[in-house]
Amino acid sequence: MNMREKIEAAAARYPDQRSAIMPALLIAQKEHGHLPGPVLEEVADILNVERIWVYELATFYTLFHTEPVGMFHLQLCDNVSCMLRGSEALLKHLEAMLGITKGGTTPEGLFTLSTVECLGACEMAPVMQVGDDYHGDLDFARVDALLDRLRAVARQATGPVLAPAAPPGE
Hints:
7 helices; alpha+beta
């Protein structure tokens, strides 16, 4: 089934085509990896809705990406609960360990680092979402272990070309 057929099938479950925008965007993002302008326009055309409605949803929700992201999108919550429990220091640590700043992607395309307003998991602050998984009660050691696990997953998927990055200054 191609993207159009998948979106049409999803849209058939809704009484109003506008209600199908989010499921359609999820389908399109899974197909293309991200949602550049032409893909957003295609989704609007398939659903026969205003393009601005599709654009608004794609740019509002952090689960949608209008630009390419790395194999692992690290989304660190920076809302008040996480900030009070050290998310600012964790962000600096992640930037140093990955050699990128917030909003950047590592040169090999493995990690993209972002902050998000709230992940709705204050009980496990500070928390970070990677793909569909939440990782909470984070500290430097847990973040480092998570990065090592993700690199191991990437090596299994792509081969040994992705070596662990050395911390800056080593």
